[in-house]
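Moderator note: this is an archived Q&A kept for reference. The question asked for a predicted structure of one protein chain; the sequence and the answer are reproduced below.
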Amino acid sequence: MSVFAEFLTRPRAPKPRYNIDPVAFVLAMIGGPLMFTLASFWLLLIPVGALIFGTLPYLVLGTPVLLIYLSRHPAKPWQLAILALLTLFCLSIGLSVGAMINRNNTTVDIALITLIFGSLFAPSWAACTGLIYNKLCRDLYAHPIPV
């Protein structure tokens, strides 16, 4: 058997799994964007506009992505910020490809605006969400499930 085949067939050690604190998760998902907006609304009211237009995509895309991520990893704010940025890039690429297929320039403009403003707010909101989740998460949920 080759080394590559042995690598592929070798049993892998199971990764630790985490239970998600439902109360902390819901409060963090709602409170993260609100906390960042309250801390930065004095910047020409741009964060308030981002809260109005970005909350629905943040909750619709961010909730399943964050649920999957938090079931496998502890909540570290910087890692959540990077995850939010990657999710935003995937959304923007998907919108752009869909617009190119349909030859719709308006959707390309929307994807570009989403990418520009979302690059500022999505990581910030996700980091605030991680901070809130860590603060509110009970000890029962903070440790990995024994495998």
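Archived answer notes: The chain has a mean pLDDT of 87.
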